[in-house]
Amino acid sequence: MVSKKAQLTGVVLVLAIIGAIVGVVVVTRQTSSSSTESSGTATSGSDAGVVDASSSKTGSSSTGKVSKKKSKTKTSGSSSGSLSITSDPASAEYTVTAFAIGDWGTTVSQDSCCTRSSTFNDYDVNAEDIVASVMDQQASAASAPPKCIISHGDNFYWTGIDSEGSRDSRFTTTFERKYDGSNIKNVPWVNVLGNHDYGGASYICSDDKGLAKCSSASELVKALSNKFTLQAEYTSPNDNRWILKDHFYVYTIEDKASGVSIDIFNVDAGDASTHGAQQTCCQCYGYAEGSDKKCKNVARGDKLCAGGDTEMFDACFDKFTEWSDDSRKQLAKEVAASTATWKIVNSHYSPYAHYDETGMKKWFEILQDSGVQLWMNGHTHGENHDYSSSLKLHFVNNGAGGGIQKESASGVPGFAKGSVEALWAYGGQEYGFMSVEASEEWLKLQYHTADDSWSFAEDFKSTKAGGVATKHCWYIPLDGDTGKEC
Fold first, then answer.
1. Which of 138, 238, 315, 419: disulfide with 217, CB 3.0–4.6 Å?
2. How far apart (Å, rounded) are the C-alpha atoms in residues 30 and 27?
């Protein structure tokens, strides 16, 4: 028989255990429900910068003020396991919107649109202006005004920003004056760089006369880094809307009222197998004076690849590898720490369409069970939407932004077909951009382009503007499952 003293001791012990459990639950809930103080934050690695946002007709835009406090956002689910989303996406409340565009930055003379093809039309010539107009229209029609525009790179064809002296005029001509609609003029642009921002395949160094051969490996690496710095240090006169914090950084947008948030993980994937470090570091179009024929199959050690200087080529290639390795390392770390409702990777390249199998596996190892629901990239100048059931991850190629002539959408390479399947591809006849609208349990992905009421002319000022056509709409569930067409 148990004594009264023993019974009393047991009761006290049980109550103490229950109290401890309740305390743990309360602490856990409080930690996961803390929210950001602003609707736009940019963090790089472990250093966090909270960008104070001011409201406007187009949503929040950054003022450039940075604090040392790291933000936390609400989350509606964990990063692993199926959540079995059963709610109706058509009746969901979408409170956070972002636009996305790739390969949009035409040359000043607009020759980047059409020099690679013998056939083109007025739509091709004025594509960037047309897409910018469609974007401005869609901004007022979205469920919520866009809080940012995700840019996948190739911001300035053909060779990026070549000098500090020419930078501001170039930004003014092919960025500020293009995206100047009242609904988007003050919306933050969240950027990564593409191969053409790093020089494309032309000379990376420059002198007083323009692009020039590099004289040494150290000069080449310095010039390559400067390509990035010249864009990163630009200050937009429109609420400082140009954002490029580092080769890897996280940008967060959220709606505080609903608690819905999106973490955008911006990566530098310059070590891609297709038109990545190899082509950029060879600089063949510089050495071959722009000859496509001479630059086919040029490789390390060839006279038309870094002038045959393998030390120069290797130093450049190693720098791209360093940046990409760091992006993968930080992506793994920051995704694991993220408490955002939605997690999106922004890249210039696809992890499988633009990489060989070995490179693909490096990215897929990080993405497996990561909780990332969407990867968005450009590079291929088309539009398509793929899905991986093993990764529970949607992939979007979004490169028909208007900076260069459109082309067919990317396919899924043979080595990736066991992991990735195609869901949709555009017809290849137009230009456009993507939007994502987020609710607590659903992400609405859409592709927008000009509708049939547009009448294109040789000059954009003579073009008769029409409306917006949405040619792809897909509901992505919070658990990263396949989802369904709208």
1. 315
2. 5
